[in-house]
Every structure is written in C-alpha cells, then in structure tokens.
Amino acid sequence: MKNLDISQILKDGKSYEGKTVTVAGWVRTARNSKSMAFLAINDGTSLKHLQVVIDKSKFDDETLAPVMKNGVAITADGVVVKAMKEGEYELNAESVSLLGDCPADYPLQKKYHTMEFLRTIPQLRVRTNTFNAMLRVRSKLSFAIHRFFQEREFCYIHTPIITGSDCEGAGEIFRVTTNGYADAKTAKDEAEYIANDFFKRKAGLTVSGQLEGEVAAMAMGKIYTFGPTFRAENSNTPRHAAEFWQVEPEVAFAKLDDIIGIATDMIKYIIKAVLDECDEELAFFEKAFEEGLREKLQHVVDSDFVVLDYGEAIKILENSGVKFQYPVAWGLDLQSEHERYITEKVFNKPVFVTNYPKKIKSFYMKQNDDGLTVAATDLLVPGVGEIIGCSEREADYDKLKSAMEERGMNLADYEGYLDLRKYGSVPHSGFGLGLERILMYVTGIGNIRDVQLYARTAGDLM
Fold first, then answer.
1. Is the pLDDT of residue 170 over 60?
2. Distance between CA 119 and CA 456 in Å, rounded?
3. What angle do CA 439, 139, 166 make, to 5 degrees?
4. How far, in Å, CA of 329 to CA of 432, rounded?
5. Which of 67, 260, 275, 276 is most exposed, with the fewest beta carbons within 10 Å of its own?
6. Do 430 and 251 touch, CB atoms closer than 8 A?
7. What tens digit of pLDDT does each residue of 322-377 get?
C-alpha cells in the first residue's frame, strides 16, 4: 500500500485532479446525511484536513459504520476532485477500510479542549490542531537554527549529557547514579558511597553544554551545540521546565559586541524563517492564541535592537512611576515585570541589557574594569522578557579562579576548564537560547508545558 501524503493533495491538488490515489489518516470528524457521508482525515503531514466524500449508495453499512467514528485510523482510495471552496480539493471515495479501531471513550470527541485537560493525555494531544501546528513550527524552527549556523561555517558539536560539573554553579542538578537505596545504607560515609558509584565521583545531567562548548571553540573557532539540558529547579511557572532544548554557540576571538551581533542576526533569521515557512500554522495561532502574532514577529525582524546598560535600565525603572511587585535597585536582578516594561512600554522592541552586577551573574563571565560588573547581556523581547542569556567569557586565569573561589566551587571539578586560560587563552563569547522559550514567542502559546511533546516539570513524569 503506497499512500500519498495528504499535504501533497492540499498543496498541489490541480496536479492530482481526476487521478485515483490512496490516502491514510486518522478521522478527525465524521458527518452523516441521508445519502452522503463526510470524513475529515489527517495524516500529520499538514495542519488542514482532507475531506473524504462518501456516496453511501456505493457502500454497505457494514463497511461504513466502523470508519464513521472520531479517532479511528483508515485508508481510502478515490478520485481527487475540486471542492466547493475555491482552490481546494477533496477525495471522492471508491473504497474505505478500517486500519485501527477507536472505542467510544476516545477523549478527543469535542472540537475544543482546554490546555490543562490536554496535558493529562500527552499520548493523544498530539492529534489536536494545536499540537499538530506547534510540532510543525518546532521542526521548522529547529532546522532554521541549524541552517543559520551552518551557513556561517559554525561546527555543530555534541557535548556530553552526563557531566561532573555544574555550569551555572547553582547546584540545580539531577544526580546520575547506579547506586541504590541499599548502597546508601551500607556505605560508611559519602566518600565511600561515591567511590562505589559508576563514575567514582558525583555525576549529573548537564545544565548547559557551554563549558564543553568553550573547549571545542578553543580549537574550532566557531561552534554551536543544540541539545537537551536539565535543571532540577522546583519552579512551577509557565516558563520553567526540568528538561528543555537549548542552542549554545561559542565563538573564539569574539567580544561582547560581536556576540550581540550574532545573536541579533540569529533571532531575526529564525523568526523570518517561521514567517516565510509556517504561514498556515501562524494563521492558526493568531486566531487561537495571540491576535496580531505575525505583525509582532515582523516587527522584530524589521527592528534595530536596543543596547541598554543595566544601570540605565535601573534608572528608567526607578523613574517610571510604576509600582512594581518586586523592588528595583542597582544590584538586584531584573524580574519579568521589569523586563517587559522596558521592552513593551519604553522601547517597543527587543532590548539587550548589558553590564550586569557580577554578584547576580555566573562565575564564568568576564569581569569589567570597574570591578562591579561583568560583560554580560540578556536579550529581552516584548511579551516574554528574557529570551537569551549572553556574555563574554572570562579569559584571565587568575580572575576566573578567584570568581570560582568566591563562590566556594570545587576547583578540581573544573581543572580542564581552567586549563583553557593557561594554554593560549583568547577573548571568546557565547550565548544560550532555550528552544521552548523562542517557540512560545513565535506561536503565542503561553505555557512551556504546551510546546513540548512530553513536559518535564516538578512532580510530572507522564
């Protein structure tokens, strides 16, 4: 059985008009009238469904009854013909067969279900229009990210998922061990427990591929990583997940201004790719989730991004006259409400906030000459807030070592990382972009749990 993708009929129906083809898919809706029946089927290759028109006089009830149910999988042979709606095509069925039955308790009977309900059935929610469109955009977005870096001769590097270091130094790591509960009870102390473990030292799932990415950049010049990262952070917010995908370029001989330029070009490139390649999906999201979505995205592509010093951002917030939920003062991190005020109320465009206080940023960021700030920047966008974390990396051995000691970090865990500053150290910079964050932005979907096939959050491992 050779099936024709439904997307081919919907995109190029004129080429198939009058031809007999075979299609297969799942029934989304089934309608019955006295002499005719209509099935809307989808095989996953398009957001739109193909209408299969059935002349009931040509079929017996024994054949039709099994296929006239939501959720069943069917195959149909028939002739492609013009539909009533101008420019569209449908299939006049000559035969219809059941591939997979579906009982009456199929959860997706209604046209609309809440996102909360759909999270309880991740194995089936992918059959809805929302998740069909989201996964299609996610695929296009991911490919655009690869294309951007490949066109600029970045080398794609696969960094380890199991690691012995904590890139962010925050301790929010999922531990990896082969030791069981009984091993913990029999070990005389932690040292013996760890010595009996698989790696003979503490290991965890990576929170970032950055440190290993820097190693590669010190030989390859321009690299990027793109893969899953993990944070054991018990944050029950719409923006946080325990597992997410992240793209992280590292560029040798690049200072902060250079990496800001690369980040700007990448954001514009991948958003334009979605605008150019996902028109049907964006139309759906604009209707279902965010009015004016395409206009918002086009505005980002067309805008010159603002570069704003952290100190100036604090002054703007302090002089705004707005009573924020969280306090504003030099030395405090910006919260989402502050970030959105700056991007939405003040500039109405993306903003790079630079030169944050070093006490609120990671140990690896280059220390500025003032001794108070680091060469770091966050890209803030209207509607979301922070979407990229970026910095020039500290290239001075003594300064990096001092920053790590101040944070009480175990230097032995970072010996190789420190070595990069001993053997031919150069200025270098990089950033991290969470795929789910940018996916939320380009689709208008408001919760990170709804832009993943399976969400991984605290207490949820469905």
1. no
2. 11
3. 60
4. 26
5. 276
6. yes
7. 999 999 999 999 999 999 999 999 999 999 999 999 999 999 999 999 999 999 99
